[in-house]
Amino acid sequence: MAENGARRIRLGMVGGGTGAFIGYVHRIAARIDGDYDLVAGALSSRPEVAKESGENLGLAEDRIYTSYEEMARAEAARPDGIEAVAIVTPNHMHYGPAKAFLEAGIHVICDKPITSTIEDARALAQVQPKNGAKFLLTHNYTGYPLVRQARELVASGALGTIRVVQVEYPQDWLTEATGEENKQAAWRTDPARSGAGGCIGDIGTHAYNLARFVTGLRTEAVSADLDSFVPGRQLDDNVHIMLRFEGGAKGMLWASQVAVGNENGLQLRVYGDKGGLEWRQDNPNYMWFTEFGKPKQLLTRGGSISVPPAASMNVRIPSGHPEGYLEAFATLYSQFAAVIRGEGQDYEALLPSLADGVEGMQFIMASVKSSQNDAKWTRFSEV
Amino acid sequence: MAENGARRIRLGMVGGGTGAFIGYVHRIAARIDGDYDLVAGALSSRPEVAKESGENLGLAEDRIYTSYEEMARAEAARPDGIEAVAIVTPNHMHYGPAKAFLEAGIHVICDKPITSTIEDARALAQVQPKNGAKFLLTHNYTGYPLVRQARELVASGALGTIRVVQVEYPQDWLTEATGEENKQAAWRTDPARSGAGGCIGDIGTHAYNLARFVTGLRTEAVSADLDSFVPGRQLDDNVHIMLRFEGGAKGMLWASQVAVGNENGLQLRVYGDKGGLEWRQDNPNYMWFTEFGKPKQLLTRGGSISVPPAASMNVRIPSGHPEGYLEAFATLYSQFAAVIRGEGQDYEALLPSLADGVEGMQFIMASVKSSQNDAKWTRFSEV
Amino acid sequence: MAENGARRIRLGMVGGGTGAFIGYVHRIAARIDGDYDLVAGALSSRPEVAKESGENLGLAEDRIYTSYEEMARAEAARPDGIEAVAIVTPNHMHYGPAKAFLEAGIHVICDKPITSTIEDARALAQVQPKNGAKFLLTHNYTGYPLVRQARELVASGALGTIRVVQVEYPQDWLTEATGEENKQAAWRTDPARSGAGGCIGDIGTHAYNLARFVTGLRTEAVSADLDSFVPGRQLDDNVHIMLRFEGGAKGMLWASQVAVGNENGLQLRVYGDKGGLEWRQDNPNYMWFTEFGKPKQLLTRGGSISVPPAASMNVRIPSGHPEGYLEAFATLYSQFAAVIRGEGQDYEALLPSLADGVEGMQFIMASVKSSQNDAKWTRFSEV
Amino acid sequence: MAENGARRIRLGMVGGGTGAFIGYVHRIAARIDGDYDLVAGALSSRPEVAKESGENLGLAEDRIYTSYEEMARAEAARPDGIEAVAIVTPNHMHYGPAKAFLEAGIHVICDKPITSTIEDARALAQVQPKNGAKFLLTHNYTGYPLVRQARELVASGALGTIRVVQVEYPQDWLTEATGEENKQAAWRTDPARSGAGGCIGDIGTHAYNLARFVTGLRTEAVSADLDSFVPGRQLDDNVHIMLRFEGGAKGMLWASQVAVGNENGLQLRVYGDKGGLEWRQDNPNYMWFTEFGKPKQLLTRGGSISVPPAASMNVRIPSGHPEGYLEAFATLYSQFAAVIRGEGQDYEALLPSLADGVEGMQFIMASVKSSQNDAKWTRFSEV
């Protein structure tokens, strides 16, 4: 049972077999707060991997599936069937399972980006979920306590009218060419599995979503210059974008997988006419908050603050004891569990949704189109 | 089941009822890697709190106890009884349960410091565990991947002969007087529940243990100046200690609960005749490593390194994605689970043990005695 | 006399009267290494200010001028006349004095940007200096020791082929509207005195020049989005630019005077296919250097380094003792003194020149033009 | 002339010939603000070095001396004789010149520590300066603007009653044995030239003085453990000290020349019952100031502040543009010039004095004595 006495949600998983990275992350996230029990899985399309992975995770034999369609059908029919499913396959394998489970009345937790094509994303948005099944897109950075605090600070007017948004996500792991043996790299650099965006889909969307989540600003148009620096690479590995927001704010977004010396340097900086905010993912328990004309303040996760703490943040341990990526991820899981149980009204508007997923695909496609047109300003409505 | 297919350990808990901090932390730590199922508890000595807490955690009614003695007896008698117990009570309530469970053949996971008196610690060391029951002391900072790396770097000779060790643990939460309503503060500042040491027992031992774990140095004597700065406080809230190690290395240890602006600033710096190391808990995914005459290198958890990565570190997610306090804690839990299953030979020497607990009490008592004698150099053998 | 026994250069100054900021900085820069004696000045066009300022600085009465033309004429005629002049007036007052002194055979040290219009810059480039008089443009950040080191690292191939350049210069001092009483702000936000660029001319050129100096990359085109966020402001106060360099490298440049919480946050990051560099002006004695696949190294000014130290850096005091802005500025002054004395061959190619000034104006004008054309890619040759 | 129109002070120098480090620093410090003209020197006791060094610095032939006695006599007799002298010799050569110049009525600027023996220090304190000649001890760190701010914050009560002072000065340049060819190391590790303290005299006194300057606390007793880790070294290279201050505050001081990875890591942390301060020399334009229960504030040199800026700080350039070691040093020089001119009443109490020099020697000798007595608490009155 969860810490607060709430019952655990029965969870299934599609993808995430032995050796996969993000499935493992989802499982930890599901365990941290004790809100889920993993009881079924179509962990791989290869039967032997599905079987071995399922056994390792302690799944009952009859709930180890090799096809998500079968899993959706069978689980929906069981009285003790799964209530939610985590979809952790490569991008091009999101749409099918998401549709199947939503139509089976099973809540969907889906890794980002939502699909590999915008057509799929739009089609998914048209699906009629049975029994009000909900959808969570795991833009996990939105679960960080201080990201929630940032959002509430902006919403409260503490920064005034937002003028400038600088967001970036540099990595360096794709600095050199990689082969098929690097499983993580292989599908991410393959248009057939990843979609039209490489770096922009993998991490650019995270950066975009983070800026969007914190500021609430809606994008008017993007001007993008996408590059593939590594010879032979088919998808972009460096992304330069200028953003124009409705209302006049401006932004820059940089994402890169070839920025040597950066591991996962996601950083957001927001400036308004009254104040500024600066936050980095690699030391996420700290955030700079400056009121114009006053000294910079270092806000800490759960620590002293001169404004009300964010109502929506989940702080597990005292300030100064670092929480990290997995706890932020877990917050999405536990708040979605509350939504599933009908107790999460306050969270529902905060959790990344199917609409955010469609917007993410618009961002990707508009950027790709802009880049193909010499960085011409491109509206989301044009893709 | 655990990620690797290993079966889950059946776990009980003593203390940790609703509202307690460290019990909650232990439960998350036990969940993260999926190596335990919490199935029994004596969560409070107050029956109604024990019942409510147990129900909230989903324990079966007949496994919610109000006495640890009864729990040890009953669980040892069940075929599906707990295999391990987490003791998360205040210090003076460690000895009794630890003895009872060890003698019942149940593995013990015990919060630090091991007891509230050195007599209790020594008595516990004399207990004959039934069926080889093991003991884990949760000096959780030793679970941080880079702390493991630090230990291996020292052991490898990369720093040469160690000369100087600077360790500190400043906090500020006890800067002002607190009342009984602050539950965390109340027992920690009460000699009857905490023992002879306040700050030194609560966080000084963590700092000492960290230095000991990383350097392997044995202490020759301490010279301590302990203070209670807050009027009316009965135990120390600031600790200044000079250390002499066997072989000639020297150290300083500072722990404080009145250092305004510090949350949990645990920091270790180690210098040898060939190199130096610097690590901070509040940003634990980074560590400075300097070879004399070369530029400082920033080692990252799981990232690039010019020496072999620590064999004993548990890295769950890619470098640049921060792990934190809970993951370090979970590493102790999961590696202890491996020990329980008979697969953890490599870990056993690393996990904080009963002997470390006795040494921690020696450290506390020698420091208290030194301070009472005008900071006279005091050997552990004198207490 | 200078430290090395070289004779001091006789220096004059145009602008920089009482209350001016940058003239004061130039004077300190000229004093630090003892290479100059300030002996004449047209410190203000207002006679009483010129007189008072000159007296305060100890100038002989007959060498306090109120007109730069007169000063150029008179000093050129004196046997002990000035050998060099520092021009520290607002931008629109650079061209006249620079031309006059060069044609009088007096070396010119000129603050940036070189002029307020590109026509003036080009005209200045056509001036025939008498007796080989030289020109120094004080892009002072190029004098930082680690900026020199960065340049040499790039030139040495330590970073491989450069792919991505991220440069930024955020400030916040113009977050709110300012009046004429803020002297520094007044002329910088006035097109008549500043030229067509506000923020881009004041600090954007510094950022551009820094990237250019370190990487050696030539710009192919810019796509710029310039804004004036403060109501009523005539010139830009926020600058977003994407850069395309010859050879395929890409860049982003952000300059802002409305980024609350930033004082002078000039930062350069350069990434190649072998390595990366990161440097910030606000803590300029440190620079990150990463070779792909190895830990980040923290290079320090004058400290340990795994590659040869920069031949062109001027390190006055031991590493760990910080040098700053004034020392970097002084390095330009002292190396220009060496050039004047005929001893500075090695420095001449490093010191920002009249050609750099013209390029800076091209950068400003191309960016302004691009911004006026909806961020259309604009070549320097188009302005 | 100085910037403010004040006349320049005629300065001489004892020591500081070609190749010396600290003399060069003093000369830059004297030049930065334009308050001095160096016109005479006994730069070396070796005639040829004295001559070459003097010529390089442009001294008139008849003002290049090889004996400080002769220099004191001759300069005192000249109508244009020096008004102040900078003594920059090794420690054992401070007393003689200081006495000679004070008795000749010439102001003395003396490097620290004041002498090599406490007897010399006390004798110097007994000297009767002619014509009210003043004495400045160059504890240069007290010139940093934020150190001045720290002092004023403490004095204003912003931190409340001070409880804990942590000061440290780690370096690593003496990690390995050095020979006579390392001129800086040679005299500092030689008791005949340095006195009874090695590391403690060279940098421990700086740390002590800094703590003393900022907090105003008077020392009751020290307990010291001094070590020479490098084989064959005669003086201490690592210093561990516990401090007891009058009124009950406690402190720790660590100084080391064998802490690999530290260049000049001077750091001061002060905690009171209302607030805390933290400052580091290697990034000196920033200081943490925390009021208990509020977020940490990052104060910047000359930047926004929630309390009045320090009246005694000298800020030359805008916040965000770093000033450094040389500017701090220069502030002592320029404020001493004001004292000499009779305009520096406000500064006189701030500038490190002969009394501070005697106290510094007491600190050294009490620490050495304590260390020789097994770290016995030792009062300054006992040495």
Automatic annotation (TrEMBL), chains A, B, C, D:
It comes from the Bacteria. Pfam families: GFO_IDH_MocA (PF01408), GFO_IDH_MocA_C3 (PF22725). Residues 147-278 form the GFO/IDH/MocA-like oxidoreductase domain. Residues 9-136 form the Gfo/Idh/MocA-like oxidoreductase N-terminal domain. This is Gfo/Idh/MocA family protein.
